[in-house]
What does this fold into?
Amino acid sequence: MDHPLDNVIWRALTTRQAHFAVARGLARRFMPEVTQLSAFQEASDQGYESLAELAGPKGTVAVFLDHPYEARPGWEVVATAPLLQMISGNSAAAGGDLQHEIVELGVNDSAEMIELTSLTKPGPFGKRTHELGNYVGIRSNGKLIAMSGQRLQVPGYTEVSAVCTHPEHTGKGYAAALMIEVMRRVRDRGETPFLHVRGDNSRAIALYERLGFGIRKRGHYAVLRKV
It folds into this structure.
């Protein structure tokens, strides 16, 4: 039997986050203003044809794959990377003392959230990504300097995502503190936290392991443009 986190974008778009889905044949994608994340039921010719209909001319999609992307007619590769899916253990991590309070983020903070994620590049983040789940942040002198939140949601699991800190404020424990808060909220609902990280991001992987995450699955990330 498949694990709930297998083909996780597809599962999210056909279960708990189906209200964000745009569908064509064997493919689903989040509304473009929410995120570029997209998926197909299977990585077949028909799956890619359905995805092409969703992308439209010169449209861009981001997919999670079990194997490295292989060139296909009609698609241009924008970016690829090894991808780890990590899942939280049963123990809850403890946070340290913070100089700044953790604040709620929402629609009024969208522009700042996009600015911070554009600078730090934790993954695709659009003007409505914050609608996918609770997002929290830390401000210094009124400026958003760190954030994290919830993105993909499937039965029993919620993804911790958009973990990022402004380069001038790293090394102060902000990312860990925000993740612990997000994880607490996920666990309070009786769910298990999980996340995705580039396989070559050793610094982030080390942080996630310290917070009790272990590697569940190795895969690949690809951003593709229809040509």
Q: What stands out?
A: The mean pLDDT is 94. The longest helix spans residues 174-188. Residues 8-83 form one domain. The chain has five helices and eleven strands.
